[in-house]
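pls ignore typos typing on phone
manganese (II) ion + seq
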Amino acid sequence: MNAISLKTYQHRRSQLKRDVGSGVLLFLGNQEVGMNYADNTYRFRQDSSFLYFFGLDYAHLAAVIDIDEDREIVFGNELTIDDIVWTGTQPTLHEKCEQMGIVDSRPMDALKTYLDQARRKGQTIHFLPPYRGDHQVWLWELLGLNPKEQGIQVSQRMVKAIVRQRIYKDAEEIAIIEEAVDVSTRMHLAAYRKVRPGIHEAEVAAAVEEVACKEGNTLAFPTIATVKGQVLHNHGFIHTLQEGDIFLLDAGAETRMHYAGDLSSSMPVGERFTERQETIYNIHLESFQAAVDMLRPGVPFREAHLAAATKICEGMKTLGLMKGDPVEAAHIGAYALFFPCGLGHMMGLDVHNMENLGEEYVGYNEGEVKSTQFGFKSLRLARPLEPGFVFTVEPGIYFIPELIDKWQSEGQFRDFINYDKLAPWRNFTGLRNELDYVITDNGVRQLGTIKKPMTLAEVYAAKEY
Ligand SMILES: [Mn+2]
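k done
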């Protein structure tokens, strides 16, 4: 298993101190969270920025980097005998911190005192946007800010400095991400073997998740395993697979180091796709390739998105479902009837990397405003690509009956969409593939050492029908 070296953690903290320049950086670690009662908790997941800078994968910790005093302090409590009886023992707080190159550890009670003193000295307390209720309450206790005020008081300086670091993946991180992608690919290969008429979506999901779980990984996000792929986040597992259906899987592993893989596959439930399904699948593959052909340093990801959207419009035009100039149809947003989401997103410690810090800081250049138009508003990544960026590419083609009806009744993009030709396609459902990439100094590299089926021939060969 690849890991991150102590030197890297120390370097990350030093760079952050230099970049923010002054004040006190407050990091709240995650807590155990009750699912239906306090002692029955969700799987513990440490906050990703906490992991990135401190590497401590334990609940109930906080950390402070006091830039003005040049101090790094971790706050936490030692286990009580009750904790040890129920959950076993752990290294002491001091031992945990020493492994991460931090010599100063203090009881959790001392955190508020430390922050109060810092504020009395006139130091700025920088903190990140809270995404959990318990962090909002904690910030209220520590800083006296009620949750409504917290959003405005979030430190943009700290957010931007963290994004500036976490957005570039170094060789250590890429090696771990590649492990996650390989596990994810094997999860998908299990689905190609499992999918057939008569079995249930839940059986495929179980086969997929087994691959991740039996090697000690977890899931990077809830699995999508469905024959209703037009519902973009379909987590229900309620259908039985039937001959003629398209099965869509979107699933990925999170390694023990908490880096994510994220892949999607579409396959026939039967031996082969129907002719119509093959046609749409191939239009989708062309759009995928058009996007990948754009990927290199300096090219805005928005351009790759538009290249994929243009190919979809071209394909729809050959089927008579669209008309007019495909380039224009893509640029004004008519493509979004069939491709209502973005082409991809940053990936790292989070499957949508750093989305908690604010999508506009991660996926967009400073000063660049995200569109509010349907389709473009779901483009999570738009900025020019740089070496070290790790992200997904996942164009799809979906027929969403409710969306078709809405656009038709509103007369949206009537010059580009042949609504009268869409009736026979309403129940087509949807399909996508998704792969993960890293931008290199002069191009792009697909992540993973195992091939995921993409072409029709590869898809059919991967099925054990
Ligand atoms: Mn994705």
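The first helix runs from residue 6 to 20. Residues 262, 345, 392, 394, 434 surround manganese (II) ion (CB under 6 Å). more later
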